[in-house]
Write a structure and sequence with these properties.
By secondary structure, the chain is α/β, with parallel strands linked by helices. It has three domains: 58 residues, no CATH class; 176 residues, Rossmann fold, CATH 3.40.50.10490; 64 residues, Orthogonal Bundle (Helicase, Ruva Protein, domain 3). 44% of the residues lie in helices and 7% in strands. Strands 2-1-3-4-5 form a five-stranded parallel sheet, sandwiched between helices. Helix 8 links the parallel strand 3 and strand 4. The N and C termini lie far apart (89 Å).
Length: 345
Amino acid sequence: MVSDSTRPSSRREETPEETVPGLRGDSRTEPFPRRRPSPTDRTLQRSERADPLDRLLTEQINPRTEDLDRCDTLGILQRLNDEDQRVAPAVRAALPDLARAVEVALDRWRRGGRIVLFGAGTSGRLATLDAAELLPTFGVPPDRYLARIAGGPGAIFRAVEGAEDDFAGGEAAASDLDRDDVAFGIAASGRTPWVLGAMSAARRRGAATLGLACVPRPELAQYCDVTVRVETGPEAIAGSTRLKAGTAQKLVLNAFSTALMVRLGKVHGNLMVDLQPTNSKLRRRAIRLVEQIAGVDRATAERALAEAADVKTAIVLLRRGVSAVQARALLEQAEGSLRRVLEDP
């Protein structure tokens, strides 16, 4: 019998996408360290020949956490946190592509289009969270920035088995998009069929298409005008993309929507001047914003807000000495930019 160590290798040469940092000593993708292959690695290598899914970096064995179940509670938390430290630098490396994605979205928004996020499982839940927060924070109408999840709204709270594999279902979810809209597909693996279906349909209908994946060569890219690749590597628990990949997705979605809102004039300096005062905390913040930017006392700020009904109009009313109607007209002429209104002579 010929042993594994002496049998000639029939394995084809690996492509960069298939090379697993740390498992095979890929020097380009440090800091995953070179180490001797374990029995788990050899099993994984054999399975790679059969199924492309097994080649994804997000599915690989992480050499730094192979003994996770031997750790005490503090040790487990430290290992998880060690992995988390790798996410922000990976996101930073993707910022040029993310900037291009924001510019595409800005153009379509100014045409009156919508931003529609598409995701399955964790990706869809994070997309839903991002969209839901924009109304109170930036006054964005819910029908302009929204999220759709494989399996429908119920999948936010309970997994809908098989929904993410439904390419046709993804196509149907994007069937109402048009040339003014943006479809943003989110898939850690870069290959989720429901998301690919949505992006395929959106592109056919003329919408701009953006993608976010956590692997270097996502299938998603072929459907997208701009693809943001955040290479988070193997998870602390193999395949559990709600960990580093999910953290990366949250960081990217936060940055994407926030940068878009800043470019749209919904932030003055670093103040959220388009907030909707829907609770006591936000009402107090609205009054404080008017006090700070208009340079008035609390009573004056409250009166201006009562007359103007929103923070930016109240500030312009006070700073420019005009009526609420005139203040709104000035803001409209400046495309909502408070800075332009206040700095214009």
